[in-house]
Amino acid sequence: MADLRTEEEVIHAWSPPRSLSTSLMYSFAQRDDxxxxxxxxxxxxxxxxxxxxxxxxxxxxTMEPDGNKVLKEIIFAPGEKKYRFCKHISKxxxxxxxxxxxxxxxxxxxxxxxxxxxxxxxxxxxxxFFELGFGNLIxxxxxxxxxxxxxxxxxAAELQEDPEGTxxxxxxxxxxxxxxxxxxxxxxxxxxxxxxxxxxxxSVHKSSGFKPGSNYPSxxxxxxxxxxxxxxxxxxxxxxxxxxTSNLLKSPLPTPDLPVPANAKLLAWVGDEILPRxxxxxxxxxxxxxxxxxxxxxLRVYDGKVFKLEEHLDRMFDSAxxxxxxNVPTREEIKEAIFRTLIRNxxxxxxxxxLSLTRGKKVTSGMSPAFNLYGCTLIVLPEWKPPVYDNTSxxxxxxxxxxxxxxxxxxSKIHHNNLLNNILAKIEGNNANAGDAIMLDQDGYVSxxxxxxxxxxxxxxxxxxxxxxxxxxxxxxxxMSLVVKENLVLEERRISLxxxxxxDEVWTTGTMGELTPVVKIDGRVIGDGKVGPVTHRxxxxxxxxxxESGVPIPTYDKxxxxxxxx
Length: 566
Known about the structure:
Distance between the termini: 66 Å
Helix content: 25-40%
Shape: elongated
Oligomer: single chain
């Protein structure tokens, strides 16, 4: 009689234990075009590791213990269906298995939050980082990605929340048709169950489909806290690659495009280490989260040098002292963190740094600095960032109704992170489709914009507001010095809004935007509506200064940097 078996396309499902993998196996078993295998490599796993299980001898005596024979004679053997579904627990990927296991067939990964896995672990097998198998899942994902076949990843929470939608997406990724039969199965044991089913499958045998997870799960066992800390980052790393994410607080927004795509893979300094972008986070107990209790500086990098670094650090230390910070890092420690972060990123030009120093982490939530017993938290956030305004054609400004903070309330000379005053004004600017918003002081005089200092030119004289309500910016001071060097008359005094409306030229200054022309304020055209001669002159002087001065980044080699960026 002729052998009707043909080569089946193998679908490998990799998962941690206790992750609805058996439910998913039952789901695929309902299809009319698939054969299902329940952990065909289990015996090999027990043989190689020597691990004990109550059913160890039964598994070794009823299943093939040679993993490579399993691959050749069972997993990749001919069959009578179009597909063969293999449920694998990730820890069963042990040394000695043929590379065909990864190279052949289609693969996908099922993940589940360790917060949900660990409490459901049976005492039959004490939970451990190895037993969870997240390390192996990372290896599997990386190996498949290196082969040009990054596997689809689904989250068990999504299966519970939206079984049909999740299975449809999975089938689409696997290039197989979805079948509605996958949503239901009969309760009870199944012929496809492994011999270990009586020890592990009692709960799933009571099911007939995917059920929603509990909104209010049981308390987490604190004796498993260490394993949770070890495994949760790997779960999160894998979850980034799911097509859908399940969260208690869902955002319907798609992943946005970055203004500079290269910043997707930046490295930032947080605390005492350099971390990838998505891992660069502070504690929920940090004072910057608890109350915006932090100071900051913006720095620019030009041609291997950090411009005005010492001046910015002077202001940061002054701000930290004014806010009575304790255990502040030394100047040299902060500079070393800046340089190391820039070097790691290869950022030697056209880059911006957001340098923050928080009061640090608290031992318990609350306002009092007495709870800050860990020392300050240093954050060095570098980005590829050209000037953020149109410095060629100029920008428009509107006047905000939000007034600049008075020194009676919060002195703007403290460069703090509590920027709600500025943010409210910026919202007004955004709503008016303006570049920024002018902020007045309590007496109605111009102070600054929500983000920059401001200057005007009238009949050859350069004027800027007194720094009573505004931040005395580093770029502001630099431009004031350049005004004098260019033999222009400089006047620092209170300036009314109408004086800006009728000015010959206006520009703003700031580290992030440099020197930016303003061509319209509150609908009034400034001068002839074009960038004026004094503005051009000072822009050139400022550009020359950035080329000539700055603190060199150690080890920077201009020729080598150019080669790396090509």
